Every structure is written in C-alpha cells, then in structure tokens.
Amino acid sequence: AKFEGKNKYLFFKSSLSDFIQSRQKLAVELSNAVNSGEIKAYYQPIFELDTERLVGVEVLARWQHPVRGVIGPEEFIPIAEETGLIPKIGGIVTEQALTQCMSWWSQGIPEFKLSINLSARQLNAGAGDELSRMLSETGFPAKNLDVEITESAAMEKSARVVREIGHIGRLGVGVSIDDYGTGSSSIAHLNKLPVSTIKIDRSFVDEITTTNQLNSTAQTIVAMGHSMGISVIAEGVENDEQREYLKKLNCDCAQGYHFCKPLSQDEFRAFLKAS
Ligand code: C2E
Ligand code: CA
Ligand code: CA
Ligand code: CA
Is 238 in the pocket of ligand 1 (CB under 6 A)? Predict the structure, then answer.
C-alpha cells in the first residue's frame, strides 16, 4: 500500500505520454494522408419532410486509412484544427464534392443543394475567397451551395468573422447555422448575418419521444426560425416518431439514420440512381 500512490502516478504519467505520442503520430499520418488523397467526401441526404423528396446533401469528411479503414471526423478534425490542417482538408472535401456534383448533374441526375461544414478557423483563413475561386473553377452554381457554420463560430462577434460570413452570403451561397441550440445565440447578432437555414442539433431531436412532445426545444427553434423567415433542418432523426413529430411542427427538412447514413461517393451514386 505504501507504494500505491507512486505506482498510480507512474501509470498515469506513462499513459499520458502514450496519449501524446499517439496523437503526434496521428498528426504526422494525417498530414501525409492529406497529401496522398486519403481524405474523402461522404454524402448524407437531406429530405423535405412534406414530400419526402431529396433536396440536399451534407458533405462529411472521412479518412480512408490504408490499414485502419474508414476513420470518422470526430477522431481527426480536432487534430486538424490544432495543427492547422483544417482549411486544407475542408478545401479538398469541398473541391471533390463540387466536382462530383457537376458530373452527376451533367449525367441528368436532378440538382440538389450541397452543404459543406466550415469551422471557425476556416472563417478566419479567408474561406470566402477560396469558395469564390472554387465556384468559378468548377462552374458550380452558388445558389446550390450552403455553408454550415456552428452556432458557436457564428456567434463569435469578431468583425473578421462577421465580414467573412457576409462575404460568403454575397457570393449567393446560403448560410446555415449548425448545431443550433447548443450555444448561446443572440437574435440581434443572428439578424446581422445572412442566415438562410438553421439546423436543430441532434440532442434536441433525441429528446423527442411520444411522452415528451410538449414545449420541446425543437418546437421553439422551428417557431423562431420561421418567424425570421429562416428554413429549419432537423439533424439526427433516427425513428419514425421523431420524423412524424417534426413534420407536425412544420419543420422543413430532416436528415438522419432513419432516412440514410452518410454514403461514400459510389454508394451515393447508387442511391441516386435507385431513387
Ligand atoms: P455535424 O456537422 O453536426 O454532422 C452531423 C453528424 O451526425 C455526422 O457525424 C453524421 O454522420 C452524424 N449523424 C447523421 N445522422 C445521424 C443519426 O441519425 N444519428 C446519429 N447518432 N448521428 C448522425 P460525422 O460525420 O462523424 O461528423 C462529425 C462532425 O465533424 C460534424 O458534425 C462536423 O462538425 C465535423 N465535420 C465533418 N466533416 C467536416 C468537414 O469537412 N469540415 C469541417 N470543418 N468539419 C467537418
Ligand atoms: Ca454540419
Ligand atoms: Ca450539425
Ligand atoms: Ca451536431
């Protein structure tokens, strides 16, 4: 018992340095992966609740690791943010998606909206100019593009961020507030931004059950959005109960495993052809 404390400390110390080492290893691997084309755009369909029509697609980054298989963004986006790789990864995924959509549409597949995720760091790194360049290079119509900015990034009141979001809006690109309800929003600040859509965070969709439908946060968000002329998308819809309730609320669109999980480029193409 005398040595227990010391052993615990040693154990903690070695697992912490293991953790740091594995993160550093991952950071190096990620930087190589970015340069060797292992970052892929995945697509999750978004449906209009009224008609069940596919109206959009959210682009989600995946790392196609040669040994570990497909790695999700929760594991590598934080490292990419820390090491400054995020603008590059965002650019790669966006370029893939814009090019891919142009090719699908040229093959007669009906047009839909494309939503890409932009982090705070990208907003500070001149995301507007880069989007503008990519739109002209690919010929992708700005009106078919939405950028998703998390509520916490959008509520950053720095002049730089407000200006960048304004710039993106003036390109004719839609601005969506992502994970809405998780941060602290000010309506006054929201009104200064060219917001066309808000996305109800999955945690509020999770709350929806048959027994808990009164005065839900989802209901409040839909009402607020519509009062401002903003369209509302619910994310993380996993069952029919949630779909039915959101439809009753007049929520405009939804995405989630209940409809479809994020798909690789080939899977999504097959999905489009079948529907
Ligand atoms: P997000 O923007 O909130 O994306 C939605 C996440 O919910 C995705 O996780 C999606 O796969 C997952 N999801 C969709 N439907 C369901 C459902 O019914 N149930 C559950 N439990 N989950 C569902 P994913 O793909 O792991 O992405 C995680 C986060 O990583 C995203 O959250 C986004 O913040 C970030 N991210 C992904 N791709 C990019 C990117 O290209 N750039 C940037 N900056 N961030 C990205
Ligand atoms: Ca998103
Ligand atoms: Ca989201
Ligand atoms: Ca979310």
Answer: yes
